[in-house]
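Journal club side-thread
Mid-discussion, someone asked how the predicted structure for our own chain would compare to the paper's figures. Pasting it here so we can look after the session.
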Amino acid sequence: MPYKLASYWLGRTPIGHTLKTHSQQVVAIHPMPSDQIKHQLDAAIRRSPLLARPGFLIRRLHQIHCGLFLDETQGHDVTPVQYSLLTTLSMLGETDQITLAHEIGLERTSVAEVIARLEARGLVLRKQSNQDRRVKLVRLSRKGVYLLKKLEDKVQRAHERTIEMIPEDQRELFVLQLIRLVEANNDVGSAPFKLAVPKERHTESGVRAGKAERAEP
């Protein structure tokens, strides 16, 4: 049950066209002139110098998203990290904890702690591998599958609310810029995040084509 990505929750109104706001007023969206950008940035920095720091803004936005996530999923006692782990298990099926850590970009010890909490709630099942008794395999339980289905729309709303103040026609670009930052710096930090990498191949006509393959951790 992977996240429903761009086409599901990102707007597609072209720049210069019109869209409806929450108040149903139709407004025109145009590229913002550079002098206007600078004016608004300077005004924001005067409110707080921290607003000039991308790292602070990313951390603060993450805090906001977690609050929205908990608001949308209240009563289910699930955190964003737990939900990422559960959705990844739903895609991979039974897998070992190290692979799971790479798939969600989390340290192995943290993954082990999250799995223990989920196991105590009956949302995942663990067992020793028949090939290597040192390896623990994890999979979703029926209860975990049911919870994912129940939370899917709620979590989607949390993601939508996180970026809803960005003009609709700019949301895909915003997400793309975040992806670029993550992919460009993926080797930094203590927890690697496994990404698909393009592999060149030749078609029957001899034209090169890209094919995504999983990167080695």
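Post-session note: The mean pLDDT is 80.
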